[in-house]
Amino acid sequence: MDNLRAMREAKYAESQKRAAAAPARPKAAVAPPATARKAVPATEPVAADELCGHRNMSGRTCTREQGHAAKSHRYS
User: Fold this and answer.
1) Residue 62: what pLDDT?
2) Quick count: other Cβ atoms within 10 Å of Cβ 37?
3) Residues 6+ positions from 23 with CB-CB distance below 8 Å
4) Is residue 28 part of a domain?
5) Smallest Cα–Cα separation from 69: which of 33, 49, 43, 47?
6) pLDDT at 45
7) pTM attached to this predicted model
8) What is the pLDDT of residue 68?
9) Rounded Cα distance, 54 and 76, in Å
């Protein structure tokens, strides 16, 4: 058990040293308050050739427009 503890402490010391040497990451941009956001107009149905087309594991395809900004897909 003493050997395991020594290895764990050595690993921790190495990770602390690596973290101190790493450059600081820039902070992520903050989203504007909800009152400053513009209303999104309702979109019209998109033709089949203009769809995202991403497929999930079960074979269903995304029905959002090509190049959509949403992080998630809508499958049907």
Assistant:
1) 87
2) 9
3) none
4) no
5) 43
6) 59
7) 0.34
8) 84
9) 11
CB-based contact 74:64 (threshold 8 Å) = yes
In the numeric block, which tokens belong to residue 25?
Answer: 């990451």
Give the residues of the chain that fall short of pLDDT 50: none
CB burial of 44-62 (b: ≥16 within 10 Å; e: otherwise) equals eeeeeeebbeeeeeeeeeb
Residue span of the structural domain in which 56 resides: 49-76
Contact indicator for 46, 61 with CB cutoff of 8 Å: no
DSSP for the chain reads -HHHHHHHHHHHHHHHHHHHHSPPPPPPPPPPPGGGSPPPPPPPPPPGGGB---B-TTS-BB-SBTT---SS--B-
Positive or negative: CA dihedral 68, 70, 72, 76 = negative
Q: Specify if 64 maps to a domain.
A: yes
